[in-house]
Amino acid sequence: MKKKVGFIIIPLILLAILGIWFLKNGKDTDTNVKKDTQQPQTEQNVVTDKIENGNTDKEEADFSLEETGLIDYEALAAYGLPVIVDYGSDSCIPCKQMAPVLEKMNEEMQEIAFVKFVDVWKNPEAAENVPIQVIPTQILFHADGTPFVPSDELAQKIQFDMYSSRDTGEHVFTVHQGGLTEEEMRLILNEMGVSD
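Above: the chain sequence. Below: its structure as tokens.
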């Protein structure tokens, strides 16, 4: 009797393991194919298409403040402008305090720098490609697409966190956690090459 039970259970366990493997790996492959072949033409796709075709005219760039999806930092880098993206919410107190600063800086920086805001409570998937631990958090990139590296003087005034790739050790993100004042944002933009 024990041999018959073992003879039945072992194949069932193997089938269960194979089934789980196919569910995990097969589903990801199908999802990737659907995303690549059936992706709707969004505003970000239009921007990416223009960049891939060599059209990075700043007048055609999207300088709007609010974003709802993943931000393509490579596409923004093609415009040759500094980037500050705030990941927050319109419901958290420090985020509400920073909102007027973001609005003012976005308005002033049209065609000079990208200043954007992503509400991660309304659009949690929009933060999947960045290291967000608390909100608000700002992601900072130089005009050449490299992560912002503050001077020692600025780093003494404002706390920054640097993230590196586990695989290569390459610096991939510079972030600031918490709200920024208008003065602090101007200091950062000045170090990014934007003059008042």
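The CA atoms of residues 87 and 118 lie 5 Å apart.
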